[in-house]
């Protein structure tokens, strides 16, 4: 446990940031899974809606630094390709 005031504050802010990072990354993963589920089911309209949500979540994770830009591009490409082969 830190004794210095700034170290205590740093611990609090790190905990808050960890919670936000966990929310963003888990929501990205959930959106991707929902999209893949709809693709397997063959629901074109729902898959398109979930694709848009997944792409937004991937961009948000990339902009916050949770996902590398190349990984984000790879995920987006893979999801778009899945959507295009479904049609």
Kindly list the characteristics that best describe this protein:
Methane Monooxygenase Hydroxylase, Chain G, domain 1, 0% strand, 3 helices
Give the radius of gyration: 17 Å
Strand content: under 5%
Order of helices and strands: HHH
Catalogue the unreliable spans.
none
**Can you give the helix content as a percent range?**
over 70%
Tally of separate domains: 1
Under CATH at level 1, the class stands as: Mainly Alpha
Instruction: Tell me what the CATH architecture is.
Output: Up-down Bundle
Task: Please tally the β strands and state the result.
Answer: 0
CATH topology: Methane Monooxygenase Hydroxylase, Chain G, domain 1
What does this structure look like?
The chain is mainly α and 87 residues long. The protein has one domain (5-86): Methane Monooxygenase Hydroxylase, Chain G, domain 1 (Up-down Bundle), CATH 1.20.58. It is built from three helices and no strands.
In short:
The protein starts with a helix and ends with a helix. The protein has 87 residues and is mainly α. The radius of gyration is 17 Å and the shape is elongated.
Q: How would the blueprint of this fold be written?
A:
Elements: H1 5-41, H2 44-63, H3 69-86
């Amino acid at each position: 446990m830190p004794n210095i005031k700034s170290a205590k504050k740093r611990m609090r802010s790190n905990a808050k940031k960890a919670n936000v990072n966990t929310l963003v990354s888990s929501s990205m993963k959930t959106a991707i899974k929902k999209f893949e589920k709809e693709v397997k089911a063959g629901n074109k309209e729902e898959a398109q809606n979930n694709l848009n949500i997944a792409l937004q979540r991937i961009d948000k994770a990339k902009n916050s630094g949770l996902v590398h830009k190349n990984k984000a591009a790879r995920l987006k490409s893979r999801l778009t390709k899945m959507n295009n082969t479904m049609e």
